[in-house]
Write a structure and sequence with these properties.
This protein is α+β, with helices and mostly antiparallel strands and about 200 residues long. The protein has 4 helices and 4 strands; from the N terminus they run H-H-E-E-H-E-E-H. Strands 2-1-3-4 form a 4-stranded antiparallel β-sheet.
Length: about 200
């Protein structure tokens, strides 16, 4: 009596195709040439945009990484306020966790001030500061600032330019230099924001 191994009863795992006949799913020469042409267009287009520093959709030269910026200093605009109690100038928006007027966090206010200063100058920037201060004080009085402790009463909103000196050799950045560009109080201009009414505060 012969004993058969259990392995002989297992089905075959795979069947190799015969090498003397072509594969049925092989791409035709036309499709092969088309795939190569598409790949060549993608590679050549991307390389051209990087070489000539252009933006041709859907390609990109990735300007964040493609340019070596050699500057001795860098600057940005930031929102500050003058505290009414003692006149001290303080940052209104300290970080993204403190938003006295949601959703105007530090990044959004920076972009708003940059756009206002570059496109409308001092007049447009004053209007932005005034409108922010009106909303800030309304929300402070109604208890809507959304922070653990309400912010201080402000007499002015100030647009500051913060400038850092860069030292490429040491890799260190010192404290920023502050320059006041313009400011506005709640009574400087006519408000363009809709006042918050008491019924909305109760909701």
């Amino acid at each position: 009596m012969s004993i058969r191994s259990p392995l002989t009863r297992l089905p075959p795992i795979c069947v190799l195709p015969s090498m003397d006949r072509p594969l049925e799913n092989q791409m035709s020469p036309g499709r092969t040439r088309l795939a190569i042409a598409i790949l060549a267009i993608i590679v050549i287009g991307q390389c051209a945009d990087i070489l000539f520093q252009r933006e041709d959709w859907p390609f990109s030269n990735y300007p964040m990484y493609a340019k070596l910026i050699r500057r001795k200093e860098t600057s940005l605009l930031r929102l500050y306020g003058r505290r009414a109690s003692d006149g001290e100038v303080i940052p209104i928006v300290d970080d993204n966790l403190i938003m006295y007027v949601p959703p105007l966090n530090e990044l959004r206010m920076k972009n708003i001030l940059d756009y206002a200063w570059s496109h409308g100058g001092e007049t447009a920037t004053k209007q932005v500061l005034h409108d922010y201060l009106v909303m800030y004080e309304q929300r402070r009085l109604l208890g809507q600032q959304g922070t653990p402790t309400p912010g201080p009463q402000l007499s002015e909103a100030i647009c500051m330019r913060m400038t850092w000196k860069l030292d490429a050799r040491s890799g260190r950045v010192g404290p920023p230099r502050l320059e006041e560009l313009t400011s506005a109080s709640a009574f400087t201009l006519a408000p363009t924001t809709r006042p918050v009414i008491a019924s909305e505060a109760a909701q």
